[in-house]
Inverse folding.
């Protein structure tokens, strides 16, 4: 039977934590974003990757310090509550749900584009279909959109697979993630090495830079490219949201985040070197999938393209599925934390009897992703995600600046740099996404106020530690401050009632 409260098991070490971070990052970033940025900024994209990686490192170190000092599920949602203000904590959780649901929907739609070898932007979405049917109900059956049914069915199966992988527990899910990450890295290595080191010689050039030329770099687009690619690094936050499930979080989380970002930066640089010849090869840029198909199209000049192209497509698909799996995992932990604090119904704070997964939270996340994916607009979901991610990591850095000196692992410079970087990159977000994001923040805060008022009740031993008075609503098992065991529902003291 599921139970409210309870602790998630600590089952992960540095190795699996790093792989979970890589699984969250190596998807839309390496197979979509870098191709777009390379086409706009040219060789300047190499510098943009380094700048984006440095900003991600600053934010990652802030997340690592916070997760080590307060290792519970929920990430910045919990840090905002503990170190800043409940409204800022709620805003972080709300922005995370919106941002990563949109990112997960983007990954899911990208899988559909790869498997069916077409740009989903030119297909009817479910929303389009419902609108068309409402306009002419007499043709309900004759207008059935058979072209979207295979895509929809396939994406539904993939989403269910990711939900099931999370439900069986993070350790078993980590095994599936390991397989996906290994295939993804192998695919990146294949097209990266071919595009950067073999393809230039096939066209009579001695090396990659002889083919692309630094004079073709558009330095005026460096700021935009850095902002665009920063979003492609932000999957490392999944490691911090798993603070309740890693062994020795004070050591494991910082190490895993740093290693994850270093590996990601190297893979992104390799991928960018492979994408840059596209600037000289219009026959690749004209492929029907756009940037999503660049990696496979690069191999059309290889004598082994019959083997390598399908493998790279497989790696692209596994990368997107890996991102989707890790986003479901991270989102469900934030929903769990919000259920514990009463910002969402308490039903979502329940963990199964084995302590492996918050089943209700996972299912809610699946529904959210399906709803966003039904819109079918990859560009809108990715752009909106950029704004909400900047808000989320801005709050992360603010919380890090409030850490007690004893809990600081690195100089405050990194938190200030991360905060400044988030504010700077915000200038590159389109105004319509600012407006939409601010409206959603306002609506979320209204919900937060109402939920807190409705749920208000006098503290009991499960909410306030009897020994030290610590707020236990975001904790499980034992008090983080003094170690006092938190009573469960059956053992908690209840007011006496007359018969």
């Amino acid at each position: 039977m599921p139970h409210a409260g309870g602790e998630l098991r600590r089952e992960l070490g540095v190795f699996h934590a790093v792989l979970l971070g890589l699984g969250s990052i190596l998807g839309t970033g390496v197979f979509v974003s870098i191709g777009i940025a390379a086409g706009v900024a040219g060789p300047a994209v190499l510098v943009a990757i380094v700048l984006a990686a440095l900003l991600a490192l600053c934010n990652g170190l802030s997340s690592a310090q916070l997760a080590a000092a307060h290792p519970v599920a929920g990430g910045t949602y919990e840090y905002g509550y503990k170190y800043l203000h409940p409204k800022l904590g709620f805003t972080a959780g709300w922005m995370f749900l919106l941002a990563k649901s949109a990112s997960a929907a983007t990954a899911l739609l990208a899988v559909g584009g790869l498997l069916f070898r077409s740009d989903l932007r030119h297909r009817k979405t479910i929303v389009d279909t419902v609108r068309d049917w409402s306009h002419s109900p007499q043709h309900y059956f004759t207008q059935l959109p058979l072209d979207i049914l295979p895509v929809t069915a396939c994406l539904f199966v993939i989403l269910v697979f990711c939900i099931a992988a999370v439900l069986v527990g993070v350790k078993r899910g980590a095994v599936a993630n390991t397989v996906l990450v290994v295939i993804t890295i192998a695919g990146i290595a294949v097209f990266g090495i071919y595009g950067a080191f073999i393809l230039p010689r096939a066209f009579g050039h001695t090396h990659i830079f002889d083919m692309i030329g630094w004079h073709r770099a558009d330095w005026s687009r460096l700021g935009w490219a850095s902002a665009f690619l920063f979003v492609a690094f932000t999957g490392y936050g999944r490691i911090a949201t798993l603070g309740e499930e890693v062994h020795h979080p004070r050591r494991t989380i910082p190490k895993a985040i740093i290693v994850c970002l270093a590996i990601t930066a190297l893979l992104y640089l390799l991928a960018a070197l492979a994408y840059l010849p596209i600037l000289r090869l219009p026959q690749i840029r004209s492929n029907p999938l756009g940037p999503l198909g660049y990696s496979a199209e690069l191999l059309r000049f290889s004598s082994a393209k019959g083997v390598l192209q399908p493998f790279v497509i497989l790696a692209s698909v596994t990368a997107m599925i890996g991102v989707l799996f890790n986003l479901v995992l991270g989102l469900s932990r934030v929903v769990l934390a919000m259920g514990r604090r009463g910002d969402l119904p308490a039903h979502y704070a329940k963990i199964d009897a084995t302590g492996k997964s918050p089943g209700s939270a996972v299912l809610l996340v699946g529904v959210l992703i399906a709803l966003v994916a039904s819109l079918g607009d990859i560009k809108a979901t990715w752009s909106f995600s950029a704004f909400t991610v900047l808000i989320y990591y801005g709050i992360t850095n603010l919380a890090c600046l409030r850490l007690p000196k004893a809990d600081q692992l690195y100089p405050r410079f990194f938190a200030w740099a991360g905060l400044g970087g988030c504010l700077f990159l915000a200038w590159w977000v389109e105004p319509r996404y600012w407006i939409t994001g601010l409206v959603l923040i306002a609506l979320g805060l209204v919900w937060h106020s109402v939920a807190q008022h409705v749920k208000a009740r006098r503290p009991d031993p499960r909410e306030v530690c009897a020994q030290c008075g610590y707020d236990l609503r975001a904790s499980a098992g034992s008090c983080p401050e003094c170690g006092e065991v938190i009573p469960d529902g059956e053992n908690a003291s209840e007011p006496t009632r007359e018969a």
In short: Residues 305-341 form the longest helix (37 residues).
